[in-house]
Amino acid sequence: MNILFAGTPEFAEWHLKSLIDSDHTISGVITQPDKPGKRGKKAIPSAVKKLAEQHSLPIIQPEKLTVEDISHCNADIMIVVAYGQILRPPVLSLPPRGCINVHGSMLPRWRGAAPIQRAIIAGDQETGVCIIQMEKGLDTGPILASESCAISDGDTSGALAQKLAAISTRLLQNVLEEISTGQCLAMPQSEIGVCYAHKIEKSEAQINWSLSSETVLRSILGFNPDPVAFSYIGDLRIKVWAATLSDEPHKLQPGQIISVSKHGVQVACGSGSINITQLQVPLGKGTILSAPDIFNARREMFAPGVIFRSERVSS
How far from the centroid of its chain's Cα atoms is residue 245's Cα? Predict the structure, then answer.
């Protein structure tokens, strides 16, 4: 089949790669406009655009996708994976075989923009992927295929996305084969258990140390690799990339450092504590520091008694 593909981040890139390696033809790739670079630097293309350029595929980057943008592609079907725009009904009805969407949850749970991150932050033990026939509603279409996946302890949203992509790229190939032979069956979604995965705002990644250690850890895992959980020491914004739960008891205020060692930085939470094993300081090259690196090079900054705060404090 001639396929029109719409997607933007790395999760979508993995699916485009699987289609490029298949017997199908990619007649066009739709992705979001390049993002402005920091401090006026060169605009940054999406992961999908970079892959499309490597394979000399036609690229379409509208601010708002219309029928006029894609009518020349003569595609049989459109596949949408984390594109980042809500498609209008005229666009959905243009391909003869319709539009299908790969979604990173077991619908109807976590309809919306950030299903993988929301599942981790909420403490779900299980998630999955669904391939649905797209319609006007937000992720409300009938399900063409689905498969569940356990969320393991320590899964970041990046790691979980990779696990889900391994499942969904396989399912997608099966669905396309069924569609091409007219054997694909669509099952309506249940209306029981509907919840929404609202778009992640950068402000959400600010760590609230007054919460339980389990909740704090889930936010750190869920916001890795983007936008990355953060907190402040003085006027420095510290990004927290990885952590584990700590059993060490304390009577300190939330955000206060209990200890620092080659095993990490232990920080008090509202209940319990966490052990930070990777963090990033906006000094020097700004590299991500492992626990031994923190102890060897930054132990004074993260000495016992120092407090992570929710706001920048000028020195």
Answer: 23
User: 274 has which bridge partners?
Assistant: 245, 267
Residues 67, 52: Cα–Cα separation, whole Å: 21
The architecture CATH gives domain 2-197? 3-Layer(aba) Sandwich (3.40)
Q: What are the domain boundaries of the chain?
A: 2-197, 203-298
pLDDT digits (tens, 9 = 90+) for 124-176: 999 999 999 999 999 999 999 999 999 999 999 999 999 999 999 999 999 99
**Residue 44 DSSP one-character state:** B
Taking 70 as the threshold, does the pLDDT of residue 237 lie above it? Answer: yes
Contact 103, 118 (CB under 8 A): no
* Distance set, CA 92 to CA 27, 88, 196, 275 (Å): 16, 6, 22, 48
Task: Quote the Cα angle for 27-32-37, to 5°.
Answer: 135
Q: Is residue 98 a contact partner of residue 23, using CB atoms and an 8 Å limit?
A: no
Cβ atoms 14, 165 nearer than 8 A: yes
Q: What is the CATH T-level fold of the domain 203-298, as seen in this structure?
A: Methionyl-tRNA Fmet Formyltransferase; Chain A, domain 2 (3.10.25)
